[in-house]
Amino acid sequence: AKEWRRAAASASLQQLALLGACVAATLISVLLLLFWRHTASRSGIRHKVVHCTSETSDKEAIRESSTLEAAIGSCLPKRLGKEERERLVIAMLKAANFQMYNQETGNPVGSPEEYVRDGLRYGQLSGGQKHLIYILRCFAQRPDVLLCDELLGGLDALRQPRVLHMLVRLMRETGAAVLYISTELHQISLVSDSLGFVSGGRMVELGRASDVLDSPKHP
């Protein structure tokens, strides 16, 4: 297991895993979407499926003039009142450790409560901050099925574990099914119950996440 973990950290295997994941990710996502839609049409049950990825143009659909409260709050359940919606937006920003910084000094500026109160706008954010807001919008929809394809690309190391813990909490509280596609083993170990390893465009190993990571059968 130790030798495999060292090998997994090497550049060559990382490149192979990345290639396999990239080739399979889109195909798997499309097949799953078609399957769930087909199942829903036959059973009469509608499942909300959300695809969340670092490689998307969906972020461009968010208006630059939108406030953070509007950008996230518009995806929360419509039945919520204004105060409850505002409270949940602030709670999500805090949970994700969203923070603005002084561009000259690098010091943190303000708090989620102040950003919502003062109407901080989406267009004022950096690329990484915009991606974080996009992720929070996906979570706010409380989907039945969430497809996460290299979800954390563009986020710094400080916020990545925060988002992963939010994802785990979302699964536990709502019962959402999550397909998490990544080449980062430490991310997979935090969020996965079952793990499939893709190599050469095909699934070569599938089992409990702890079993596959600790005692892999594939070289």
Task: Describe the protein's architecture and organization.
The longest helix has 33 residues, at 11-43. This protein has a 3-stranded parallel β-sheet, with helices on both faces. Helix content is 50%, strand content 15%. By secondary structure, it is α/β, with parallel strands linked by helices. Mean pLDDT is 80; it is low at 1-46. The chain is built from 9 helices and 7 strands, in the order H-H-E-H-H-E-E-H-H-E-H-E-H-E-E-H.
The number of helices is 9
Distance between the termini: 10 Å
User: How much β-strand is present in the residues?
Assistant: 5-15%
Largest sheet: 3 strands, parallel
Instruction: Name the strands of the widest sheet in spatial order.
Output: 1-4-5
Helix content: 40-55%
Low-confidence stretches: 1-46
- Mean pLDDT metric: 80
Number of strands: 7
Q: Write down the overall geometry.
A: globular
What is the C-alpha radius of gyration, as a whole number of Å? 19 Å
Instruction: Give the structural class.
Output: alpha/beta
Order of helices and strands: HHEHHEEHHEHEHEEH
